[in-house]
Amino acid sequence: MTATTTSGELTEVLGQLMQRAKPGQQQLLMATAERMAAARYRAWADNESGERRIALLACAAREEEVARRIEGLHTDADAVQAQIREQNPDLGTLAGEFFARFPVEEQYRLQAQAERLGAATWRSLAKRAEGGALRDVFLTCAALEEESAVVLESF
């Protein structure tokens, strides 16, 4: 499979994932996906050592930070995310099944692309945000995503 094919597949999977959310739930679905990515980073870190392990754990922490910031924007985040997970029981395995088809180095490359797509999404939301505080949250999330992409690309 070529890099272009897998990139297209990744974009398609992420698009299908976003279509699962009702209007107004997309940000919290994305926060849920960020937590799933954090778990994936920790699993990768379990199989690495030294600098690479440390870098992957830092990426996991950034994913959790993005999720916390987005969840903090919604007073009903826990309830909505529980509803999203209930309505999408395969959510936890969707990304895992996608990534499992590839060797770990390819998984890193694909995750870097996902981070860049996430950053672009947060920047797009920042452009439409009403208020500077909300815009700042989205731009911070974009920067965190970019930071992880750079780490993965360095591998």
Helix-strand pattern, N to C?
HHHHHHH
Structural class call reads mainly alpha
Helix content: over 70%
Distance between the termini: 20 Å
Any idea what the shape is?
Answer: globular
Instruction: Give the radius of gyration.
Output: 15 Å
Strand content: under 5%
**Low-pLDDT regions:** none
Number of helices: 7
Q: Count up the domains.
A: 1
What's the average pLDDT? 90
Sheet having the most strands: none
How many β-strands, per DSSP?
Answer: 0
Organism: Piscinibacter gummiphilus
Protein name: DUF892 family protein
InterPro entries: Ferritin-like_SF
Description:
With 155 residues, the protein is an all-alpha fold. The protein has one domain. The protein contains seven helices and no strands. Helix 2 (26-46) runs antiparallel to helix 3 and helix 3 (50-71) runs antiparallel to helix 7. The longest helix is centred in the last third of the chain and has 25 residues, at 104-128. The radius of gyration is 15 Å and the shape is globular. The mean pLDDT is 90.
